[in-house]
Amino acid sequence: MAHDSGRILTTHVGSLPRPHDLLDMMKYRLTGEGEPVDDAAFEARLSEAVSDCVKRQAACGLDIVADGEISKPGFFVYIEERLDGFEPRPDVKLPFFEAETAAFPEYYEEYFAKAMFGGNVAPVVPMFCVGPVTYTGHQALQRDLNNLRNAVDAAGCESAFVPATAPSGVGHNDYYKSEEEYFEAVGEAMRVEYQAIVEAGFDLQVDDPFLSDIFGNPALDQKQRQRKADMYVEGVNHALRGMPEEKIRYHTCYGINEGPRIHEAPLAEVIGHILQVNASVYSFEAANPRHEHDYHVFEETKLPDGKAIMPGIVTHASNIVEHPELIAEWLVRFAGLVGRENVIAGADCGFSSQACYKTEVHPTVIWAKFEAMAEGARIASGKLW
Question: Residue 222 and residue 261: Cα distance in Å, rounded?
Fold first, then answer.
């Protein structure tokens, strides 16, 4: 990913709202509910939706676009479609943002029901590894890469990225002897997807919100947090070995969209592990009020040579559109700490991590945020160059 372009480049983190008619098709294919749809009709509508999504991003002024994760039912669910060795266990209830939900139980009961999971086309079901992990999603992956390539070429975009989950986002181990062995196996399987994305000429974004979650987990002491974070980083790097760092971007966030979020770890606790990942660009939340002050980290932490940061300067946790002048101030501030050539404008997280009928940030507002991002980057570039 070329980031020294004589100006601040703009991008986002990946997921965007899917068209409702496509969601209807996905719901039928996943659950059997709704109007029947054949494969040809679905594939044609999917290709059209990706094309429209890329055109819209380009029209908003984004430099590095994506397919919006249009084809994926959700951040977790798509793994079920692409990896073998797992089984769903819908009756299992796993801990979820324990400190937050314990502090605000009434709020999160309503939030999870209505917002985060309320309108999903398919339920989010825990997946457990029960056999050797292997990659089986070649056909779906190639379809996604072909659709994105066609859309990027038609829109005249110069750069595009494809998100893929980190090993830490792939289910729960109930087969391998140790977590280390499990992560190595999952990394080997996901490596197939990672390599295909890079070989197709796109930037690979490794999505790992679970790294930051470790440092806010009340069930772990500091030593356990460090050990688990080390294991996460080693799992990612093992999967990325031999791949060109300039084609890799790494994203971490905190999982929750709109909420109190008082139990999230500060960036200072996570940054040491983030920078150990073999990537050239690091994405993290910076636009929401719980983390806007985290820029101070770079007053003490030196960004390694040849690396860039991609702070979120628009957030997925509010329908307020950030003002371009404020966006420019944030970008200039980061540039003053790490160098103007080492900053890319991004978003805090994806706007539709699950395929759902109602996103927390309205689609019209999302596009307005991207337009504000592009304008803010232009203002900042004018001040920096």
Answer: 20
Q: Does 1 map to a domain? A: no
Q: What is the model's pTM?
A: 0.96
Mean pLDDT, range 174-200, rounded to an integer: 96
Structure tokens belonging to residue 14: 């990946």
CA atoms within 13 A on the CB side of 7: 12
- For residue 120, the enclosing domain spans 9-384
Taking the C-alpha atoms of residue 118 and residue 112, their distance in angstroms, rounded to an integer, is 7
User: Which of 378, 284, 291, 302 has the alpha carbon at shortest distance from 338?
Assistant: 302
Instruction: List, for residues 68-100, the tens digit of each pLDDT value.
Output: 999 998 876 677 789 999 999 989 887 778 889
3-state SS class at 103? helix
Chain centroid to Cα 106, Å, comes to 28
Q: How far apart are CA 198 and CA 164, in angstroms?
A: 11
| Residue 111 pLDDT class (50, 70, 90 cuts) | confident
Tell me the C-alpha distance between 187 and 181, whole Å: 10
The four Cα atoms 312, 170, 363, 378 give a dihedral, to 10 degrees, of: 30
pLDDT surpasses 60 at 1: no
- 4 part of a folded domain: no
Does a structural domain hold residue 2?
A: no
Sequence-separated (6 or more) residues with CB below 8 Å from residue 132: 84, 85, 175, 185
Residue 107 to residue 198: CA distance in whole angstroms: 41
* pLDDT > 70: percent of the chain: 97
Residue 247 lies in a domain: yes
Chain-centre distance for alpha carbon 58: 19
The strands making up 203-207's β-sheet, listed across from edge to edge, are 9-10, 344-347, 308-314, 281-284, 248-251, 203-207, 159-165, 64-65
- CATH code of the domain containing 279: 3.20.20.210
pLDDT band at residue 143 using 50, 70 and 90 as cut-offs: very high
Measured at the alpha carbon of residue 239, what is the angle toward residues 238 and 244, in degrees to the nearest 5? 95
Overall number of domains in the chain: 1
Stretch 347-364: mean pLDDT, rounded? 92
Query: What confidence score (pLDDT) does residue 124 get?
Result: 80
Q: Tell the residue number behind the tokens 């203002």, with chain if given.
A: 379
Q: What's the first-to-final CA gap in the chain, in angstroms?
A: 20
Does the pLDDT value for residue 41 go beyond 60? Answer: yes
